[in-house]
Amino acid sequence: MDRQIIPPIAAHLAGWETAHVELAIYGTDEAHHIACALDEFCRRELRCAPVQALFYRSSISAVAGMRLLDDRKIVIKAHQPDWSFQRLQEVLRLQSIVARELGLAPQVVIGPAPLGNGLATVEEYVNRGSIRNGHEAPVRQALAQSLHGVAEYLTAAVPVTTLPLSLLTSTPTSALWPRPHSKLFDFDATSRGAEYIDNLAAAARARMNPVGARVVGHSDWRAEHVRFEGDRPVVAFDWNSLAEEREPALVGITAHMFCSDWSRGDVAPAPTLEEARAFIADYQAASGRAFTSAERALCGAAFAYSVAYTSRCGHASGVDTRGQPGTFQHLVAREGIRLLDICA
What is the Cα–Cα distance from 36 to 53, expressed in whole angstroms? Predict the structure, then answer.
């Protein structure tokens, strides 16, 4: 194994108190052992040894950019054990369609294939374009238009899919919250002081009636995941976020976080109400159709519930940003139930 692979992994792991993702996938948080597993995977599945780690990061999955001995550049996405072969296979099928027909996704190389305790997928390494500020009106409009473009194409091209609903609409009817997307967030243990968030979530759940067309879309379509050349999106990442969703819910979910870029500290993660309304209007303009009153109610409920969920994650982390404009907790504390009427 080339030891150049280890430093980027070690540097990333140093930022975590507990590396939950790596422990779930690899059974270890030791950079050397993770590097060995990636080396073995490349030799077995790609028939070539890795010689350089281009980057390494983890959130829900663990993602490693690699340069191989034959000079190929690839990205390995190692998934936690709860990601099934069938779901990943469907994601790759749809990602391949987007890559081939729309040019907005990296080409799939192989997968799913065993890695650690779970499965991994491999796509080409794409390094083009730049991340833009989602608060800029042309960027917001382009994100809304491209969200619609991807959903319109995939829904027409894939009349039958095995994709699940997105995290925020797949919550059991008897529960207020889904299982958080990361072990970093324990909602049950942090309920004290979160009543203002939980009340909004409950009100939103009560209005989340499933209306509108079913679409196949990217449920985490935001500035951090899209690269631009000028004002034009040229490639997007995180296609594991593909889901089958009611169109108004997809738009409401996306409107809550389209401008978020957690890699930057100089950009407010939450939109203003005016920006969220504008995003929804931009989407409807791209579709050439205004939502019905029932669809507007679902869009507003999905928006409010998504803002509440992201706020709840912050609260579970021990962060209180109610007094800080541009944050989700501030949006909930200031607007409360009025967030349901974002489409009014």
Answer: 12
pLDDT tens by residue, 195-246: 999 999 999 999 999 999 999 999 999 999 999 999 999 999 999 999 999 9
Query: Which residue type, as a one-letter code, is found at position 112?
Result: P
Q: Compute the distance between CA of residue 266 and CA of residue 333 in angstroms, rounded to an integer.
A: 22
Give me the phi and psi of 118, to 5 degrees please.
-135, -145
Dist. CA 267–CA 213, nearest whole Å: 33
Question: What's the predicted TM-score (pTM) here?
Answer: 0.94
Rounded CA separation 323/331 (Å) = 9
Amino acid present at 59: S
What stretches of 14-128 show up as alpha helix (H) in DSSP?
Answer: 20-26, 31-45, 85-97
Residue 265: partners with Cβ closer than 8 Å, 6 or more residues away: none
Q: Are 320 and 190 in contact (CB under 8 A)?
A: no
> What residue ranges define each of the domains in the chain, with the CATH number in brackets?
3-124 (3.30.200), 137-341 (3.90.1200.10)
Phi then psi for 263, rounded to 5 degrees? -85, -5
303 vs 257: CA distance, rounded Å: 9
- Residue 155 Cα distances to 120, 238, 286, angstroms: 26, 18, 15
Distances (CA, A) of 225 to 29, 113, 309: 26, 24, 20
Tens-digit pLDDT profile for residues 105-142:
999 999 999 999 999 999 999 999 999 999 999 999 99
CA 197 to CA 22: how far, in whole Å? 30
Question: CB-based burial of residue 58 (10 Å sphere; 0-12 exposed, 13-18 middle, 19+ buried)?
Answer: buried
Considering only the C-alpha atoms of the chain, give the largest distance between any 2 of them, rounded to a whole number of Å.
60
How far is residue 127's CA from residue 74's CA, in Å, rounded to a whole number? 11
Of 339, 280, 301, 309, nearest in space to 147 by CA: 280
